[in-house]
TrEMBL record:
Cellular localization per UniProt: Cell membrane
Species per Swiss-Prot/TrEMBL record: Blastococcus saxobsidens (strain DD2)
TM regions (residue ranges): 6-30, 51-70, 76-100, 112-137, 143-168
GO cellular component, one term: plasma membrane
Protein name (Swiss-Prot/TrEMBL): Biotin transporter
Amino acid sequence: MKTRDLAYIALFAAVIAVLGTLPAVAIGPVPITAQTLGVMLAGSVLGARRGFLSVLLFLVLVAIGLPLLASGSGGLAVFAGPTAGYLFSWPIAAFVIGWLTERFWARYNVAWGVLSNVVGGMVVIYLIGVPVLAAVANLSLGAAIVSGALPFLIGDAIKAFLAAAIAAQVRRSYPVIERPRQALATR
């Protein structure tokens, strides 16, 4: 791994941490935060591998006790609480977003970016986060969907659009993801 890759990974872990300084809005067991925007950006801008590693680095920093989550919390206890599934899903979400972004590279635009962010940043996070919320908070799956997914749909869709728009602009001005080899071979 190149030094530049390590710098990108650290930078996006810091971006997620900075987004945690925006106050969380508590609407139930799962707060509304801006940090999922950072997860979407990590995958969209860095690609699958580096996006995954940047979010994983962020979670390691949280696990060692740094209060980097929007609620001001950190430590191992957050990985056993009702929001643990959402936290565990973040690196996977960044990977899926990055993987899809890399596949759409030749025709990447805001629409493809929104699709990648919705699939990776919403579907993946909800598929992991909601069942864990149900299990830890002793809720039915339906109640977990009502409290852990439905209130977030509009906000997460807005974040998916913002991340796609930012990633499209970054790609035009300073692309971090390299062109796929087959695209280079055809030129």
